[in-house]
Specification:
Helix content: over 70%
Number of domains: 1
Largest sheet: none
């Protein structure tokens, strides 16, 4: 039996079998590769489905549209100049009331029954206090309102989730198909990458971290204003004001001047001169309050939808984009990292043989 000479390799110990070489080469020629892991693509698709379903389950399409309507409706009234005009109007009414009280104290009040004027004198202090408190609430939230209105239009907010969600689903489906053939779809990776970039950029570009949290205290402060009972109460104030002013103008002032042409009715006359623009402003405010009670309720429900998690939606709104974006990024990075790690291990094992 021939002994192997030094330096001669042992057949079968260092070389693969001929059949293995032929089958491996044939597989390469035929383009057949071992199936790749499909788990990352399942994760991307699942993430996409979650992003699509979340706005639907929360009723975000309807509620966000109502929020947009409310923000637009209040725009003319949450302004420093407009609030100052309302305060001036309240001061004008109060001056007319004091004018009536002064006429009564000086003995110049006309003889007769003036129930609407009496109601104005009696009820206006509480009306003034309540309306002033409402204006204080509106004015104290002017900055918060500006922050909310600076966000992307509310009606578009659901689509900011749905669009990257659709991209993830598409990337997952294409990636799954390619993985079954042992390939990697660069198109799927690119689509998923765009969705990741979208989710990571939108919360910062849209100001969601800095401006969205202002929504919670604004909604809390407006909770006492935006109810149907509160609107009816304000409408009742307007009835009292309109009745008192009408009677002052039609009967009361004429009777005072008939008895004493030199009587001071200047504040009452000022109310008459200001009445038309004043009523227009108050009617507009009452209309906006009445039309947006349901819109306010919808936005509040949207904000409270995350209450079981221990926080309000507006307080963490930016994270609803950032966390899925980071999750998508992790999935995209994990697979190449795993492949590189496997290759590194194979190289190390080959060097150690």
């Amino acid at each position: 039996m021939t002994e192997p000479r030094p330096g001669m390799a042992t057949v079968g110990a260092a070389f693969p079998a001929y059949g293995d070489v032929v089958s491996s080469h044939a597989a390469e020629v035929a383009g057949i590769r071992a199936p790749r892991s499909r788990i990352p693509h399942l994760l991307l698709a699942a993430l996409g489905v979650a992003l699509i379903l979340a706005p639907l389950l929360l009723g975000m399409f309807t509620r966000a549209a109502q929020g947009q309507e409310m923000i637009v409706s209040f725009a003319p009234y949450i302004q420093t100049e407009r609030i100052a005009e309302f305060r001036a109007d309240l001061a004008t009414v109060d001056a007319a009331r004091e004018n009536v009280a002064a006429l009564e104290l000086s003995g110049h009040a006309p003889v007769g029954d003036y129930p609407y004027v009496a109601a104005l004198v009696r009820e206006y202090p509480s009306i003034d206090a309540d309306m002033s408190a409402m204006l204080d609430t509106v004015e104290s939230n002017a900055v918060r309102y500006q922050q909310l209105s600076s966000l992307p239009p509310f009606a578009l907010l659901p689509w900011l989730f749905v669009l990257p969600g659709l991209a993830f689903v598409l990337a997952g489906a294409l990636g799954w198909r390619a993985a079954r053939r042992g390939r990697r779809s660069m198109f799927a990776t690119g689509v998923a990458g765009l969705a990741v970039v979208w989710l990571l950029v939108v919360p910062f570009a849209g100001g969601f971290f800095t401006n969205a949290p202002s929504g919670t205290p604004l909604l809390q402060d407006f909770s006492a204003i935006m109810t149907h009972d509160r609107v009816r109460q304000v409408q009742g104030y307007f009835v009292t004001l309109a009745g008192g002013q009408g009677e002052l103008n039609s009967r009361y002032t004429k009777a005072v001047l008939a008895a004493d042409p030199g009587a001071d009715v200047g504040a009452i006359a000022a109310l008459e001169a200001r009445w038309q623009p004043m009523t227009s402003q108050f009617a507009g405010l009452i209309g906006v309050l009445n039309d947006n009670v349901d819109n306010y309720t919808a936005v509040s429900e949207l904000n409270d939808s995350t209450a079981p998690l221990g926080f309000s939606a507006f307080d963490r709104f930016g994270w609803f984009f950032l966390l899925p974006g980071l999750a998508g990024l992790g999935v995209l990075v994990a697979e190449p990292a795993r492949v590189l790690l496997d290759r590194r291990r194979a190289t190390v094992q080959g060097e150690n043989r």
